[in-house]
């Protein structure tokens, strides 16, 4: 089968066509992958940046997200049948099996759910990792009707889904943006935007004297930068980081959380329901064929994106 792989830490990732189709174990399903998408973790994996944090088993097939069709089922599988359309994302402790490939074998009870019927494979494949992370962040911040939430990094994959989910819960969403992003974010449900490059916390405090109820920071990697943004949050409010920057001792008695993503079939199925109901959409900016995954990585790191970059496989 074809797969886009990293074959060693010294190698440049590239397309191979000589890998075997995965074998099925008991309880496994074989998914014929039709589409995937690009997440920052995929680019970091390709650069070897997760060395020391996760085990690399070469060749590493890159990619986490998938949308495809069940081609075979292993012994004991009752959840799926051949021909079922699924979507999901892979979160295994060892980096080896990935989704930039023609096929992947997975436990039937993990990582996937029934694909939303109202969208194609490309749109479905752009959802799983980013939307699950956004949903987990929404739960961590415990947003309610009328809550004001500041989203920093709102135009990326996680941010684009979070803006929609938060607005759908009735929250007043304030999103950081470039000037050209405002129509995009307003269309997703943002009530206000703050220009990137400004003192975000100061601008928000000028507009909302008592502070906002919550912060989702999708940009800061250092606790000091996270704390500076958390100054926009009212006393006793909530703040969350998707990059591990939420530290202790924030002023105002804030509850700070580092959001840990997880591939949960029940959460994926809930998201599929929102997509089919028309209350959540998958914003795909561009698509790339499997052979051009490296170009997609470069674009993700060097260009400003609105939503997701997708990979077409079949």
Task: Give a summary of the structure in a few sentences.
Helix content is 26%, strand content 29%. By secondary structure, the chain is an alpha/beta fold. The strands form 4 sheets. Strands 3, 6, 7, 9, 10, 17 and 18 form a 7-stranded mixed sheet that branches.
Overall description:
- The longest helix is centred in the middle third of the chain and has 14 residues, at 128-141.
- The protein has helices at 40-46, 121-125, 128-141, 157-168, 182-188, 200-207, 223-230, 265-276, 293-302; strands at residues 3-6, 14-16, 28-38, 55-56, 60-61, 65-73, 85-89, 94-95, 103-107, 112-114, 148-152, 172-177, 192-195, 212-217, 233-241, 255-258, 284-289, 308-312.
- Helix 3 (128-141) crosses helix 4.
- It folds into two domains: 3-127 and 282-312, Medium-chain alcohol dehydrogenases, catalytic domain (Quinone Oxidoreductase, Chain A, domain 1, Alpha-Beta Complex), CATH 3.90.180.10; 130-258, Rossmann fold (3-Layer(aba) Sandwich), CATH 3.40.50.
- The protein is globular.
- The strands form four sheets. Strands 3, 6, 7, 9, 10, 17 and 18 form a seven-stranded mixed beta sheet that branches. Strands 13-12-11-14-15-16 form a six-stranded parallel beta sheet, sandwiched between helices.
- It contains nine helices and 18 strands.
- Helix 5 links the parallel strand 12 and strand 13 (192-195).
- It has 314 residues and is an alpha/beta fold.
